[in-house]
Amino acid sequence: MDRPDALDRAWRAVRAEAERLRPIHLRELFAADAGRFGGLCFRLDDLTIDLSKEKLDGQALAALVELARAAGVEALRDALVAGEPVNLTEERAVLHMALRGGAEPPAGDDVAGTLDRFLGFAEAVRRGEVAGAGGPVSDVVNIGIGGSDLGPAMAARALSPDRDGPRLHFVSNVDGAHLADTVADLDPARTLVIVSSKTFTTLETMANARLARDWLGPHAERQMAAVSTNLAGCAAFGIPAERVFGFWDWVGGRYSLWSAIGLSLAIGIGAARFRAFLAGAAAMDQHVREAPLARNLPVLLGLVGIWRRNALGWPTVALIPYDQRLERFPAYVQQLDMESNGKRVTRDGRPVATATGPVIWGEPGTNAQHSFFQLLHQGTDVVPVDFVAAARPRRADPEHHALLLANCLAQGQALAFGRSAEEVEAEMTAAGRSPEEIARLVPHRTFPGDRPSTTILFGELDPFSLGRLIALFEHKVFVQGAIWDVNSYDQWGVELGKALAGALIPALRDDAPLAGDASTRGLVGRIKELKG
Ligand code: F6P
């Protein structure tokens, strides 16, 4: 199918807007429009998204909204919600929204009953009715990787003030050190191990599950549970059916936190808070379904991403939560975004016409300020920043929270407005520095500014707001995938490495002969020499 004219026109209009705005400094955009913040700041209840420090204006945003319309974002969203097989390469529906009441599940799939069942199990663990050989469960170890790890691990850390159940631990890496270090101080008679794997075949997870079973020893049978779509695999591993919790192939791994993959989290925070977490996501689902494109928060975030990536040509995004408990959020969004939209062909298999998913990375502020922010302020590349912060602290010193937020806002200011050579000169003159010294130091102390950021702000980080925040990013990824016309719901790019690793294992373990390239054969040989 050829790209329809309307879509080409919309892209051309967006690019023309970018050329109009490219030479205009953010300082000038603010100076020219006293109502800029009001015009470019969007809200859903307490959730507030400030786009005014992005290098765009109302006219550019209108062109972007037109692009979303021309790309058929609304039709694809409706197809997603209706359970059509939008994951074309795997011929599957994409219905993670149905896990939280944001869409209808396919007929016959008992989402509500499964939720009740795994939350019932979580509560039984919390009450001590499901216990270890040595007493009530004190620790839960979730074994999983990718979407079967990052979601619950991130959310458990984010909601640590809400945890009133057993301690939660997460083991993902096939490096045996991960499990060894995690269980070093745990009591195998009071630890519940949950094996979380959609396929129940993932090499890392199955290797760690076997190691954990050995560590549990005689307690393995009563103290292991599993979450998977592969019920036969769980049974073959020896996990009794009453401790196996299923989900469905229409839940992608990186979208599975809302399913029983969230079991560890539910044991930590309890059923009521887990339901509040789902409700937060459902509120965002309702918003994305109902709000007009021009006021639809995930649509706007997605369009800003398109603007940065395709109109202005910036290949990376720094995601900086000013919240220590969101320290795993950048890693979570990395998988969500890069596994979804790191694609090079369109939904019908042709090379894409534009750049697709950006590189997402980040660390919490203020730590990041003392590591890589120097480059963001004065390096040669423009790196757009997404700031995320809560207005109110939870179980944390309020004065520290003021320091935290002051730093968050200051970074956005410094990036956008910088410090001109004239300002630096005036400041140094007032401080009594000599003209020679001023001339020597001004270039080093000047900040160009004109570097964009979006600030995402909300009341406080609780189960509801975390669910809503995650769903905001999920839908943003959807919007961008729709505009790029890629399938955001497969991940063939991770398969080749898995297959190649499989072929290398016998060579490393049993001295089996190895075919293939000289570098890899050379490295295998060197590993063997070093092992002795
Ligand atoms: O990394 C590829 C991937 O398939 C992810 O999409 C997924 O979240 C992860 O592996 C784990 O898969 P599973 O839950 O089947 O063990």
From TrEMBL:
<dbReference type="InterPro" id="IPR018189">
    <property type="entry name" value="Phosphoglucose_isomerase_CS"/>
</dbReference>
<feature type="active site" description="Proton donor">
    <location>
        <position position="339"/>
    </location>
</feature>
<dbReference type="GO" id="GO:0006096">
    <property type="term" value="P:glycolytic process"/>
</dbReference>
<dbReference type="GO" id="GO:0048029">
    <property type="term" value="F:monosaccharide binding"/>
</dbReference>
<protein>
    <recommendedName>
        <fullName>Glucose-6-phosphate isomerase</fullName>
        <ecNumber>5.3.1.9</ecNumber>
    </recommendedName>
</protein>
<comment type="pathway">
    <text>Carbohydrate biosynthesis; gluconeogenesis.</text>
</comment>
<dbReference type="GO" id="GO:0004347">
    <property type="term" value="F:glucose-6-phosphate isomerase activity"/>
</dbReference>
<dbReference type="GO" id="GO:0097367">
    <property type="term" value="F:carbohydrate derivative binding"/>
</dbReference>
<dbReference type="GO" id="GO:0006094">
    <property type="term" value="P:gluconeogenesis"/>
</dbReference>
<dbReference type="InterPro" id="IPR006195">
    <property type="entry name" value="aa-tRNA-synth_II"/>
</dbReference>
<feature type="active site">
    <location>
        <position position="370"/>
    </location>
</feature>
<comment type="similarity">
    <text>Belongs to the GPI family.</text>
</comment>
<feature type="active site">
    <location>
        <position position="498"/>
    </location>
</feature>
<dbReference type="InterPro" id="IPR001672">
    <property type="entry name" value="G6P_Isomerase"/>
</dbReference>
<keyword id="KW-0312">Gluconeogenesis</keyword>
<dbReference type="GO" id="GO:0051156">
    <property type="term" value="P:glucose 6-phosphate metabolic process"/>
</dbReference>
<dbReference type="InterPro" id="IPR035476">
    <property type="entry name" value="SIS_PGI_1"/>
</dbReference>
<keyword id="KW-0324">Glycolysis</keyword>
<keyword id="KW-0413">Isomerase</keyword>
<dbReference type="Pfam" id="PF00342">
    <property type="entry name" value="PGI"/>
</dbReference>
<feature type="domain" description="Aminoacyl-transfer RNA synthetases class-II family profile">
    <location>
        <begin position="1"/>
        <end position="506"/>
    </location>
</feature>
<dbReference type="InterPro" id="IPR023096">
    <property type="entry name" value="G6P_Isomerase_C"/>
</dbReference>
<dbReference type="InterPro" id="IPR046348">
    <property type="entry name" value="SIS_dom_sf"/>
</dbReference>
<dbReference type="GO" id="GO:0005829">
    <property type="term" value="C:cytosol"/>
</dbReference>
<keyword id="KW-0963">Cytoplasm</keyword>
<comment type="function">
    <text>Catalyzes the reversible isomerization of glucose-6-phosphate to fructose-6-phosphate.</text>
</comment>
<comment type="pathway">
    <text>Carbohydrate degradation; glycolysis; D-glyceraldehyde 3-phosphate and glycerone phosphate from D-glucose: step 2/4.</text>
</comment>
<dbReference type="InterPro" id="IPR035482">
    <property type="entry name" value="SIS_PGI_2"/>
</dbReference>
